[in-house]
Amino acid sequence: xDTVDETTSFFDTAPLLKDGSGGGxxxxxxxxxxGTTVPLEQRCVRYIDNxxxxxxxxxxxxxxxxxxxxxxxxxxxxxxxxxxxxxQPYCRSLPEDPLLxxxxxxxxxxxxxxxxxxxxxxxxxxxxxxxxxxxxISLSLVQSCVSYICLKVxxxxxxxxxxxxxxxxxxxxxxxxxxxxLAAAVSDFYVPWExxxxxxxxxxxxxxxxxxxxxxxxxxxxxxxxxxxxFCVSFKLETDxxxxxxxxxxxxxxxxxxxxxxxxxSSRKEVVILVTNSGKVSVYRDNKDSDVESPLIKLxxxxxxxxxxxxxxxx
Length: 315
Ligand code: PMT
Description:
alpha/beta, 8-stranded mixed sheet, binds ligand PMT
């Protein structure tokens, strides 16, 4: 059963708005980014984590003054649903060790001088100021004509699915001009609340024996119920390249995705394979200083345009 929230949709007015290029209905993409965690105790001390840094989702979102084609640059409004602590758009140029970056060894090699490097924060400010409407805003502003909404959650997978449902049902009104770009690594397993230890699990009790239940895939319900005419892009990550394409093909068919982005853990920053009903395309980054997301988003934007031309609005 469709459980659409009865309150006013975030995007009730969106089909009336035009995109940055002045033509066509407004395009909105929901980007999920980062990995979910699975708590092991109700009063959680320990949890199962996921490797995802959120680099893919953050990079795909940005607006850059260069020719790189990311979502904001391509005229999309972006809802960025990401896990606290993982990358945010524009911030990947910030240092990994901000404290160490503040110090510099002096010439006499004997002391360390504090020196605040402003170049990183300046780079972020400049990138953002090039795009007039970018900024993290609260949900109450969603109905205005904004370009970037940032939703930060501590990514327990159940919470993630609930927020995605709210976003998707709100975007339903957009029909084919809505896009889902599901780059988050969502856990496939969880500990059901009723069988979860209430307090911290005691090591004195010996080896831990725990049974994890399977998380139902949200892709089916997203496609069938929440956003039936949206352009849906899911991701497939494997470490064994022998099974990667087979699994991506299966996801395309089973969940009726418009595209599946297949990537291998070790090469995910250099190459991805875009799997659609019309075949498979390997997408490489142009050079070692560029991102694979740039050619990838360009391809997806073209495919989304074709989808919008051939899919009827739901009203
Ligand atoms: O963040 P980075 O470090 O830059 O890395 C990017 C990435 C490798 C995480 C990204 O490119 C990627 O591949 N993300 C999906 C990884 C993944 O979790 O794959 P999966 O096989 O578990 O899931 C496949 C798809 O099903 C995903 O789109 C996921 O959103 C969805 N899913 C997963 C689990 C679940 N219970 N329900 C789902 O719908």
